[in-house]
Structures are given as C-alpha cells and as structure tokens.
Design a protein that fits this description.
Blueprint lengths: L10 E8 L5 E8 L5 E7 L6 E3 L5 E3 L2 H11 L7 H18 L3 E3 H15 L1 H11 L5 H20 L1
Parallel strand pairs: 4-6
Antiparallel strand pairs: 1-2, 2-3, 4-5
Helix pairs in contact: 1-2, 1-4, 3-4
Bound molecules: zinc ion.
C-alpha cells in the first residue's frame, strides 16, 4: 500500500480488525521508509448495497442520488457541497459498518432527515416534504410545531 506521506510501497501491518458483521476489514499500517502510520479499509463494493424502493423494485445503492436529493433540498441554504458529500459518505459507511447490504429507500430518507434536521431546518422541511409525500400545508405545520417544541425543550433545559 502506497504511503500517503512519502509514496513508498513498503509498509507493515500493525493491526487488523474486522467490523461486527465482517463486512469491513480495517488495517493499521506503518510505512517502513518514513514511519508514517495510516489506516486502510477493505470492504465490499458499494454496488452490493441494494435499495428496496417503495414500489418494491430494487436498485443498486447510489451515493450520488443522495447527494442530488440533499442538493435540491438545500438550494439557497448555507450548506456546502462538502457537508452534503459528508452526509452521503456517512450514510454509506453506516450501512457497511452495520453490515446492512439491503436497505429501504425509507431508511435512507430517515437518516438523511435526521442529519439535515440538525443542520438546517428549511432544507430538512424541503427534503421531508418530498420524502414523505407531504400532501398539504398541514403536514408542514405539524412538523414545524414539532421542531419548535424541541427547540423550546432545549432552551428550558
Ligand atoms: Zn512513508
């Protein structure tokens, strides 16, 4: 494995660890030339995560779809491309670490919502409206009330 610091190809493995489900192998390495320590992950390729959609059709997990969805929801909001990509990466990493290779679009939506909720309320509402097929303004009102209640709760604590 090429050392990220000096480019040497010679290293030794200090430690090898496996995730709970055995889907990710993590190796701690040390460069034999400069002594730099780094970690590599060996894992199942992401196309092996399959997504079951609402109509029960199945498609390969596509991180770019998550990125596009969040981008749409956060148009004009103070959320950076980097933050969006980080959310998508975290979701992928979460499924792999948990060994969940079959997920539903609703599960993905829920995680995106929980992450957006703490980041930006407007982007969260927009995303939730698409994700949960909000039918009218009442759906928004109930969720806005919920958020307000949470905020008050934080203040009074
Ligand atoms: Zn090195």
């Amino acid at each position: 494995m090429k050392c990220p610091k000096c480019g040497s190809l010679e290293d030794k493995v200090l430690e090898t660890r496996q995730s709970k489900e055995g889907t990710v192998i993590k190796r701690r390495r040390e460069c034999l030339k400069c002594g730099y320590r780094f970690t590599t992950y060996e894992r199942i390729e992401e196309e092996f995560i399959t997504v079951v959609k609402k109509d029960n059709s199945v498609e390969p997990f596509d991180k770019e779809k998550i990125v596009r969805g969040i981008k749409l929801a956060s148009t004009g909001r103070p959320i950076t491309e980097q933050q969006i990509r980080q959310i998508a990466d975290e979701i992928e990493r979460y499924f792999i670490d948990e060994g969940k290779l079959k997920v539903t679009s609703a599960e993905i939506g829920d995680i995106v919502k929980s992450k957006l909720r703490s980041l930006d309320a407007v982007a969260f509402l927009r995303f939730a409206s698409v994700c949960d097929n909000f039918q009218d303004i009442k759906d928004f009102e109930s969720i806005i009330k919920e958020i307000e209640k949470e905020k008050k709760g934080e203040k009074s604590e």
